[in-house]
Amino acid sequence: MISIAMHFCDTHIHLVAAGTKEKADVWVESAAAAGIDCLIQPGVRIGDWDAMVSLAQRHPSVYAAPGIHPMCADQWDDEAARQLKELTCHPKVVAIGEIGLDAVVGPAQEVQERALRAQLQIALDHDLPVLLHCRQKKGALLAILRELDIGRHIGGVWHGFSGSLPFARELVDLGFVIGVGPVLLRHNARKLIEVVAALPTSSFVVETDLPDMARTPEELINVAKKIAEIKSLSLYGVARVTTENTLKLVSVPHRMPAPGRRTAVE
């Protein structure tokens, strides 16, 4: 066994979700022990934002991506816009998210689209990438992203990707990266395995979507191990390239693991 220091970035982890806030500080520490030294929290509702930023201020490895999830799009109003614009100036805010369209939950399509467009404009105005959520609305979301040329101007992550290889290639061509998470570990993850196998490693980042898709932050390592298996890479190689991809997208200081902290690699 050789021990090699590794540095992972989780681009989508809800550390202050309802019912989990009391675990947030413990999760940050357990993530660091596993070599996960960069944690980006997407927002869901306005009520999350202060807690997200507060946690980020307490921990150098934690960052915030405030935004309103499409299921909460009816929260969008002038006050929400004011608060979000103000937060874009905070040094620990590195993206806007998670924003998008959802055909399964949330208010009417026009309400979701109004909130989405307003948040995309704020992201454009403040040169911040976006963390995108989409469920059964990829055509409508892609049309808006193309119209505003979001990928070329600021880029972003298509969170929780589970689509086809042609669709993944389309997103990458538009300037986005693919968020690869615990879906990859499912027994029926054939499409996502095909995507990871076919796309260059520059095309994806890793995420847990804790607590919805993972029980602990360390689940990110299992996702990375699966990528390593598919791409015939070392775990260290996956850590390096996915971290580099994240750092190209967001303005996060590249903090290497502290001396003496090692992650075991078989």
From TrEMBL:
GO MF annotation terms: hydrolase activity, acting on ester bonds; metal ion binding
UniProt-annotated binding residues for a divalent metal cation 2: 133, 159
One GO cellular component term: cytosol
Entry-linked InterPro entries: Metal_Hydrolase, TatD-like
Swiss-Prot/TrEMBL keywords: Hydrolase, Metal-binding
Signal sequence residues: none
Superkingdom: Bacteria
Record-linked Gene3D superfamilies: Metal-dependent hydrolases
One Pfam match: TatD_DNase
Binding site for a divalent metal cation 1: 12, 14, 98, 209
UniProt keyword Metal-binding present: yes
Family of this protein: Belongs to the metallo-dependent hydrolases superfamily. TatD-type hydrolase family.
Protein name per UniProt: TatD family hydrolase
